[in-house]
Amino acid sequence: MIREYKKEDKKQIDDIGQLIKSDYIFKESEQSKCLVFEENNIVVGFMVYLQTEDNVEIYDIAVKEEYQQNAIGTKLLTYLELAIQASCSKIILEVRSDNEKAISFYLGKGFIKKAVRKKYYQDGENALIMIKELW
Ligand SMILES: CC(C)(COP(=O)(O)OP(=O)(O)OC[C@H]1O[C@@H](n2cnc3c(N)ncnc32)[C@H](O)[C@@H]1OP(=O)(O)O)[C@@H](O)C(=O)NCCC(=O)NCCS
Question: What range does the domain containing 6 cover?
């Protein structure tokens, strides 16, 4: 089941978020929103995004390792696309250039590589800007 974030989810999201960054901490904000994927009362995946006037930026998406490759990431993305499609024409995100799994996921979902931000991350890794045009 996909639902909106509740305060009680924070610990589980922080734990899953460490797949993205070892010191991941989910920060609640007025602007960004968080969707969670729950199975048997356990949060197994989440997505954080920011919707602006005509586009959406995905900040984070992660699925617990043992639940990966079961279409949970796909379902989170599809849910977001359906929710925003009337008002937003594109989805934007940035991903580490060495994150092959995530890049392969995004390419499979119709994102294209748009630009590279050289040495964007603290360890010198590049960031890849990816975009999906919805209409
Ligand atoms: C990216 C991520 C959210 C995808 O979630 P998921 O639920 O596993 O994805 P789905 O099952 O819906 O989609 C599977 C697709 O993702 C990609 N993928 C997922 N796991 C993969 C792996 N181990 N190796 C290569 N590609 C992989 C493939 O393109 C795959 O398509 P295929 O099954 O046709 O080969 C998940 O891998 C994850 O949590 N990664 C760690 C966190 C992260 O790096 N997030 C991105 C931050 S920008």
Answer: 2-133
Please report which confidence band the pLDDT of residue 15 belongs to, taking 50, 70 and 90 as the band edges: very high
Give the count of domains, the chain: 1
Closest CA to 109 of 132, 128, 129, 86: 132
Q: Measure 104 CA to ligand 1 centroid, in angstroms.
A: 7
For residues 32-59, average pLDDT: 96
Q: Bridge partners of 117?
A: 127
Please identify, by atom number, the ligand 1 atom nearest to the C-alpha of residue 108. 29
Tokens of 119: 């040495």
CATH code where residue 73 lies: 3.40.630.30
pTM above 0.70?
Answer: yes
